[in-house]
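Inverse folding, one chain.
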């Protein structure tokens, strides 16, 4: 057996920041070298950030990535890190000789590169290109057909990229036939609820299939609607868990692996049947031995996964923090109504940015209850956020003096005036406006266009109302708990009076959500089945939902599509969010169930 010390750098790049991302690679490669690693690996598309979307179709950006990679290789060597093999994702383009019929030579590659001693030693590209859910890779990338097998410290290491692990055949199959001792997989795998368990099972199954250990390095951080949770993993050839990184934080996972020693040298390039209808060329390279001082055996770190609510909350905090900071904002503003949704959004913002960077506006109207103001003031006091009261009754009166509005039009006027206040303060002071709508409201259209739907980012956009309450209760139980994504509040940040309050938009006397919507305990499971599982009307009824309620909810969801198209982005936490995942026509005569 041979000994290989591997370092998986679970880090947070920014899309388009080639220089900043290169700085991260150098910084974390230095940490890996200091830990005595024989090999350092970074996530998929690390140099460019992920996903680059249609930036991949700009030749200028592709070329900038290629040049940045060359500079990075030289810089690593110049800073004394050239002897450490570094594997990183980047954006590349195929050589002319690899272009397939009917495809222009400019099409880009979702690529991986080995950097060693100042050079780009070997390049490859993702073989399986996902084209489902949030992924659009088949449209913007060319499929790769090479599998690097690089001999490092006496071990043959094969390299694959993300989706190559999720599909049968391809690099996993070829890695087994090539006799690799380790399959290294670079990933930018977005978070969704319960995905960590699926990933571990997948890694274990693919390791057994390839007959070798598997190291899975994943990105961490937020990018628009996507959140990457890290959770990097190393499993043995038998699928046993050897090491695991914590979720939602940057981390260097270092592990000593006892792996099969590489056999006699083989031909440099060998075509192999990939068992998916394609052929992949195994590209073998041997690195000269790197002199590494003797280090004590690295302890195998196995971080425990977060529980369900902690995981969701961490994703919302990270997604909010990175959206705000990566887009150049330092502070946020939101309307604080005394209700559960705005209370949770304010708390997420405090955890993400610090209470001193959160500004709340209390906007009482003629229909606001006394408790709405006092409860909001109590939350402000507990969290230490900035707040001001701007009564809107006079503003509403001024509009009504000029407009003859009744019913829903009059109700929505109040919501739109509130939005004008916080948008005006946003423009004046440079705050990003946070929107407070939840997934249940978005699904059913229970929001005012250009009113409570106005803003720049929506932290709970993908959170059903029932889960909003669950998260609020969970967050209160964590007061004083030391978790990296929580602010150390001295007491429960959300007053119990807010959590126990019956939800209401307070746009007319005595208004309650339940007057317009079913009870959320009944509504949310139906919405999950219709929106996330795409069940039709008959399937919903077969699943146990009331037929009349199913008809009503289907109509509400379908008619609200135009509102959702105009809603701000927010962190994705479910298998199908409103945004990148779910794309339906606004104009359509199809009605589910006839």
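Residues assigned per position:
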């Amino acid at each position: 057996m041979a000994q290989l010390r591997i370092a998986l750098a679970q880090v947070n790049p920014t899309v388009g920041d080639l220089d900043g991302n290169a700085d991260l690679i150098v910084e974390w490669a230095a940490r890996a070298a200091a830990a005595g690693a024989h090999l350092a690996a970074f996530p998929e598309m690390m140099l460019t950030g992920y996903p680059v979307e249609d930036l991949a179709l700009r030749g200028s950006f592709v070329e900038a990535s290629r040049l940045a990679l060359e500079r990075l290789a030289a810089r690593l060597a110049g800073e004394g890190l050239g002897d450490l093999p570094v594997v990183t994702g980047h954006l590349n383009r195929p050589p002319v000789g690899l272009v397939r019929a009917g495809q222009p030579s400019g099409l880009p590659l979702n690529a991986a590169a080995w950097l060693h001693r100042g050079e780009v030693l070997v390049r490859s590209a993702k073989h399986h290109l996902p084209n489902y859910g949030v992924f659009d890779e088949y449209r913007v990338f060319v499929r790769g057909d090479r599998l690097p097998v690089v001999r490092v410290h006496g071990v043959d290491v094969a390299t694959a990229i993300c989706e190559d692990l999720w599909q049968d055949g391809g690099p996993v199959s070829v890695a087994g036939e090539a006799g690799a001792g380790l399959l290294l997989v670079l990933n930018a795998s977005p978070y969704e609820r319960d995905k960590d368990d699926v990933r571990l099972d997948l890694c274990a199954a693919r390791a057994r299939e390839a007959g070798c250990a598997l190291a899975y390095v994943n990105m961490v951080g937020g990018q628009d609607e996507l959140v990457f949770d890290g959770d990097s993993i190393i499993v043995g050839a038998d699928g046993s868990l050897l090491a695991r990184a914590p979720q939602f934080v940057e981390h260097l996972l270092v592990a000593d692996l006892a792996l099969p020693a590489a056999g006699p040298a083989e031909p440099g390039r060998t075509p192999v049947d990939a068992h998916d209808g394609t052929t992949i060329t195994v590209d073998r390279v041997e690195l000269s031995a790197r002199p590494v001082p003797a280090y004590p055996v690295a302890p195998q770190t196995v971080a425990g996964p977060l529980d369900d609510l902690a995981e969701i909350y961490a994703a919302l905090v990270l997604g909010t923090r990175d959206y705000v900071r990566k887009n150049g904002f330092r502070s946020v503003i939101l309307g604080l109504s005394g209700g559960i949704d705005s209370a949770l959004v304010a708390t997420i913002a405090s955890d993400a940015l610090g209470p001193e960077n959160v500004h709340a506006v209390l906007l009482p109207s003629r229909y606001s209850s006394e408790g709405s103001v006092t409860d909001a003031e109590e939350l402000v006091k507990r969290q230490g956020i900035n707040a001001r009261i701007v009564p809107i009754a006079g503003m509403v009166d001024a509009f009504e003096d000029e407009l003859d509005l009744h019913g829903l039009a009059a109700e929505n006027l109040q919501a739109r005036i509130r939005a004008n206040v916080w948008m005006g303060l946003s423009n004046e002071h440079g705050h990003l406006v946070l929107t407070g709508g939840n997934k249940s409201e978005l699904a059913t259209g229970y929001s005012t266009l250009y009113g409570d739907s106005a803003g720049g980012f929506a932290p709970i956009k993908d959170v059903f109302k029932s889960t909003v309450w669950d998260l609020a209760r969970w967050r209160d139980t964590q007061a004083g708990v030391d978790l990296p994504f929580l602010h150390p509040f001295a007491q429960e940040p959300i007053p119990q009076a807010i959590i126990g309050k019956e939800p209401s938009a307070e746009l007319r006397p005595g208004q309650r959500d339940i007057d317009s919507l079913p009870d959320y305990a009944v509504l949310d499971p139906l919405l999950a089945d219709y929106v996330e599982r795409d069940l039709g009307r008959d399937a919903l009824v077969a699943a146990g939902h009331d037929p009349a309620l199913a008809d009503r909810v289907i109509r509400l969801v379908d008619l609200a599509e135009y509102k959702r198209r105009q809603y701000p982005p927010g962190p994705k936490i479910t298998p199908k969010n409103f945004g990148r995942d779910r794309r339906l026509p606004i104009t359509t005569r199809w009605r589910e169930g006839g």
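The CA atoms of residues 302 and 430 lie 42 Å apart. The mean pLDDT is 91.
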